[in-house]
């Protein structure tokens, strides 16, 4: 991993492999052993840390081999493998104590992909509390594919597949007026994170620019990237929202007409995962994707000569949220000689076996907990003062996450499942994510949805002045897998919020440990 000063003056972060590929897509099968050596070549380009601090960190790390924690710094890093059910231990998927210092010897990650990991799209990114936004916003993220989706859904067999990683970054043209094709809006407001605030119109300056596979699509004109396909070809598109703070609402339009998208997987899990229905394809014409989430869908390309775009429509992030306006991401062009995507799914494949454990929706929860997202101004009399972000177990006092604390907010037992009601007591959206496991979305805004698949990231609607209750979701957390044992985090996947304290600690005890 390295960073660099871009021509526009911003600092970019990137992974590069031994062959020079930027942020390579890792392709693995269940049962594969991944050995990944992470070399940290980060420099303190913005001069945020003193040389003395850096030396202290280096010597601490030399003694500990990178597993002993210590103070997180702008040039330290680590990796989180988002969505994988692997143990939260050093050299696997621990983000609490694993710190790889700049210039240190390569740090080895070594773990086996579980045999029962659902086939789909996962991802890797740094998870250094306080500096995750800086590194991810600057580009540090990559896709990971657990192969075999064609074993879970026959509809995708034989399709060519493409992986799209959508990232956000600070605006390239922050002072430019909006395009003359947009309606004229009142002067832009700035939210408390310093980003363009949601103006509720779908237009105006976005909080962040987006890029698709590192092709930037900057404000104000959003010159789209180019995707070529054979005319009317069906492909599987696997899209990761690796943004630090930007919500996506993806659609494919021919002219102005939204096209049907055949959703087959969310957050790495095929929609048929409950085993109750085969080959599920859910037809939709747009797909909301919070930061951290993934969608995999069948798309049919345009006929020759029909103008087509992949766009993100506006997302109403709430009165306290960022501005995520309508904008194009890529132009889709039909061409008889379109370059072929590198990868094609098998025409025939052995069907995926039944999950070893009963369907999560059929298991009785050991208990129900209530958690909530909230925000507080450090000076309640000054709307411009800094905001603290919290995720709190109902009944406890809200406290910003402290990486040095180590006391779990929640203690659970491996082998059980629990229902969590997660409320949003703030006026902007939050995206709940927990490490090491997937969960089942039972209720959204108090209404049962009982989805027949699993997620690892879910959006929680924002609080309005009219609401009689706090907006909420109810999810069933799955602590049955032995890899769920350990101490790890749950947090908001808007990384400015996570870095600002919106994270909590859970300790899942082994089934054999005595109750304390
Ligand atoms: Cu949040």
Give a structural overview.
This protein is mainly β. It contains four helices and 34 strands. The strands form seven sheets. Strands 9, 10, 11, 13, 16, 17, 18, 20 and 23 form a nine-stranded mixed beta sheet that branches. Strands 12, 14, 15, 19, 21 and 22 form a six-stranded mixed beta sheet that branches. Strand 10 and strand 11 (215-217) form a beta hairpin. The chain is globular, with a radius of gyration of 22 Å. The two termini are 42 Å apart. The model has no long low-confidence stretch (mean pLDDT 91). Bound molecules: copper (II) ion (CU). Residues 430, 492, 494, 497, 502 line the site of copper (II) ion.
- Residue windows where pLDDT falls under 50 for at least 5 positions: none
Mean pLDDT: 91
Ligands, deduplicated: copper (II) ion
Shape: globular
Helix fraction bin? under 10%
Classify the secondary structure makeup into a structural class. Answer: mainly beta
What does the main sheet amount to? 9 strands, mixed
Rounded to the nearest angstrom, the radius of gyration is: 22 Å
β-strand amount: 25-35%
Work out the oligomeric state of the chains in this entry.
Answer: single chain
Number of strands: 34
Number of helices: 4
Q: Between the first and last Cα atoms, what is the distance in angstroms?
A: 42 Å
